[in-house]
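Today's session is about reading a structure prediction critically. Students often jump straight to the picture, but the first step is always the sequence itself: look for stretches that repeat, for charged clusters, for runs of hydrophobic residues. Only then move on to the predicted structure, which in these notes is written as discrete structure tokens rather than atom positions. Here is the chain we will use throughout the hour.
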Amino acid sequence: MRSWIREAWAGMDTEKVKDYIGLNLRSVCGVAPLAADLQISPDKLRKEFRRKEGLPLSRFILITKVENAKKLLADTDRYCFEICFDVGFSREDVGARIFKRVTGMTMLQYRESARDGRPR
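Below is the predicted structure for this chain, in token form.
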């Protein structure tokens, strides 16, 4: 494990933990594997992240994936299934369902609205 991650967690610097998630988003598939990477118990990771950020870690991971998907939808013509895999969803249907739950739009609706210049 990288020493800066261990130091960041010792000081409860969740910004560095969030950076780690952002850099490794495609491979982050849940709290338990992330906790293993950070060499901390999943329960402690969940509790401390929520305490510091006011948001469950699992929700932060999903929102980060959706935000990355939004950028790709707005800026590229790539297929939705490719985008789902690129941002770390294990299956297209899971990514599409989470995207709609978070944004209130399907991926294609979001792409159209982003290209029409309407608010996102």
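Discussion point for the tutorial: The chain has a mean pLDDT of 87.
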